[in-house]
Amino acid sequence: MGIMLSLQKVTKIYPGADSIKAVNKLTFDLEEGEICTLVGPSGCGKTTAMKMINRLISVTSGKILINGQNVANTNTIELRRKIGYVIQNIGLFPNMTIGENIAIIPKLLKWDKGRIQEKVQSLLEIVSLPPEEYRDRYPRELSGGQQQRIGVARGMAGDPPIMLMDEPFGAIDPINREHLQNEFLRIQEKVKKTIVFVTHDIDEAIKMGDKICLLKDGHLVQFASPEEMLINPKNDFVSDFVGGDRTLKRLNLFTIRKSMQTNPPVVNVTETIETARNLFVKLNVDYLIAVDSDGFLKGMIKRDAIPAGVDTVMDATEKTNAWLPGTASLKDGLSEIFTHDYGFLIVVDEDRKVLGWLRTEDIKKTLKG
Amino acid sequence: MNSKTLVELIKRIIPYIVAIAFVLWLYVSYGAWAYTLKNMSEFFRLIGEHMVLVFISMAAAISVGVTLGTVMTRKGFEKSASVIMAVVNVWQSVPSLGVIALAYGILPMIGISGIGMVPALFALFFHAVAPIVRNTYAGIDSVSRDVIEAATGMGMTRKQIMFQIELPNAMPVIMGGIRTSSAIIVGTAPLAFLIGGGGLGFWIFTGIALVDMGIMTAGAVPVALLAMLIDFLLAKLETLIVSRGILSDGAQTAM
């Protein structure tokens, strides 16, 4: 993985504002396939910095290199066609169908018709909008969230190695935003674009970024991975900006699977109640996870709530919803632990096969590193 | 077709039928039909002249109006645009008869006769170009900045943005200007007779002068039918050239 995007002492001074440097000697490198979130308070220069990459804003001094090539020496139009561009207010073309909107860059790049059709088809599938249903509809017939998915699909249509995204999910309600963020990260797993992602929301920056570039008044304050920035904020500004709950925020960076223990207290539902009683004593636990012979979750048994006169574990098993898939974040895991009385959480796979269990002390261990 | 859309269709057609029936009744009862039959060759000459007046001035107003309105939105023309818009707004308030009189009075100053079809065409053109300029400018100006920014950032050239984004999205507003202009032209064309421009105004004014309702209606009714036909054709045209993605709901059901 080589350096895809490199900013070298990039400075922007807007005409008429001589002394104010909107962006001041910004320097950072981005490797191929990484997402870099540009974040900071409003007026920090994050959008200006992003727009200099595709030359919507000219650079006053310094250099921007894409794959080692100075963007100042490339044809503006050709440069932009190789850089996907997604903006907050989406900007779909109202006079064109969804299919035509997505096809616009491939058309400008003079791809042949069959290839364009295939691309539109596959992109609509990737953003979970069935092509047959959506290709021929118009932007105004779609909801905001759907429109932004099309915006993202359109940005990716020309197979650009680099994408610029200016608060792409900023205008979308919180529930849809989280959904789109997750979906986008899932897409990114597959396509591995190099992405510059502008946001004013530190939580989004932490969630989406492989690297966070925190700006203030045009200066780069800290350029680091989310983990690094949360553990070692460079100064008071950074720690204020990431917030007093930065340790809790780190919970978002891990999956449950990474933190769980793989020796959960399980008992087979076909066992006798005596075996279960012995297990409670032996493992010194108040609850046992009941599974079937293939390891699939059946429920939970409580030590002092075994009904009288039952013979098998099956009869004493109660249903439980204290479980999460291993792909959930530690934050969700912690929340779920506190929701139930068991003091732990069952970790399962997609088919609800038990993988392990998660206790607060496991989380503590993960955060300590 | 279900019964609801049928009722809607009938509701829409009824005003047309009533208007046409009324006009035709006037036409026959005043003796205009008989007068026209008697003067068939003159009728064809007049309606020919009338069509020339309407369609040539219309074509000129559309081509000049849309071009000027588009140029005004280009970079570097911001200042002249506000001046032109001010002129256009004042100009629109000049009444039709005034425009005809101005053509008669002013054109001789630049060496063009003030009498005949040419000054009439000038007058119609100048009167009709204003709404087209104004609507083209306003239509393009109202295309969302986000749309333009997205197009620019994606690497579309200025020309591509103009032809693929700005003009198509401004089209409903531009078409509105064209329909206004056509109404102005059709309404003003009979006045061309006053400066020797010919057309069906000849019969209308002759009829008024002689207090002969037959002659007047023989001129007025074809003018009215022409107006309705042109408006109908423009509405049809609108559904053809305006994208379904931006047609207002009203316009979608209009035809």
Would you write up a description of this structure?
The complex is a heterodimer of chains A (369) and B (255). Chain A is of the alpha/beta class. Chain A folds into two domains: 3-253, P-loop containing nucleotide triphosphate hydrolases (Rossmann fold), CATH 3.40.50; 256-368, CBS-domain, CATH 3.10.580. Chain A is built from 16 helices and 16 strands. Chain A has helices at 46-53, 76-81, 98-108, 113-126, 131-134, 144-156, 174-191, 202-208, 226-231, 236-242, 246-250, 256-259, 273-283, 313-316, 330-339, 360-368, and strands at residues 3-12, 23-31, 35-39, 61-66, 69-70, 83-87, 162-166, 194-199, 211-216, 219-224, 266-268, 287-291, 297-302, 323-325, 344-348, 354-359. In chain A, helix 3 (98-108) packs across helix 4 (113-126), helix 3 packs parallel to helix 6 and helix 4 packs across helix 6. The model of chain A has no long low-confidence stretch (mean pLDDT 91). Chain B is mainly alpha-helical. Chain B has one domain (18-254): MetI-like fold, CATH 1.10.3720. Helix content of chain B is 80%, strand content 0%. Chain B has helices at residues 3-29, 32-38, 40-72, 78-92, 96-106, 117-141, 145-153, 158-188, 201-210, 213-241, 249-254. The model of chain B is unreliable at 250-255 (pLDDT under 50). Classes of the chains: A alpha/beta (369), B mainly alpha (255). Chains A and B meet through helix 2, strand 6, helix 3 and helix 6 of A and helix 7 and helix 8 of B.
